[in-house]
Amino acid sequence: MTEKKRDYVVGHGKPPVGNRFKKGQSGNPGGRATKTAPPLLVRKFNEQVVVATNGRRQKTTRREVVIVQLVDQPTRAGLFATKFLTDVLKEIEKKASLSPRPTELV
């Protein structure tokens, strides 16, 4: 019986040469799953919904629906909700502006 010599022993943390990641290939191409509130809020606020206004149906974003409802129904609870919502949106937009963006062609 002859044994083949390898560069190293295949085992835990040492995959066979054919199963390794290629150079430049990420081990997690989808990235980390986001479970924090700001990305979830942004995603939900940007969803399209159908609303009935004056008997007509139209598509709009949840963001617009919430803002219109808060403005149209000024109550004490609505004022607190408006303040909270605007603070959250400002924070999200500030974080979004700080994140690196692809360079734009001029």
Can you walk me through this structure?
- The chain is of the alpha+beta class and 106 residues long.
- Strand 1 and strand 2 (56-61) form a beta hairpin.
- It has helices at 37-45, 62-72, 76-98, and strands at 48-53, 56-61.
- The mean pLDDT is 76.
- The N and C termini lie far apart (68 Å).
- It has a two-stranded antiparallel ribbon with strand order 1-2.
Features:
106 residues; alpha+beta; two-stranded antiparallel ribbon; 2 strands; 41% helix; 11% strand; elongated
Topology readout:
Layout: H1 37-45, E1 48-53, E2 56-61, H2 62-72, H3 76-98
Antiparallel strand pairs: 1-2
Categorize the overall geometry. elongated
How widely separated are the two ends? 68 Å
Task: Please report which band the strand proportion falls in: under 5%, 5-15%, 15-25%, 25-35%, 35-45% or over 45%.
Answer: 5-15%
Rounded mean pLDDT score: 76
Strand order of the largest sheet: 1-2
Spans where pLDDT lies below 50 across 5 or more residues = none
Which H/E pattern describes the elements?
HEEHH
User: Counting H and I runs of at least 4 residues, what is the number of helices?
Assistant: 3
Which class best fits the helix and strand makeup? alpha+beta
Number of strands: 2
Global Rg: 26 Å
Largest sheet composition: 2 strands, antiparallel
| Portion in helices | 40-55%
Summarize the structure.
The protein is an alpha+beta fold and 106 residues long. It contains 3 helices and 2 strands.
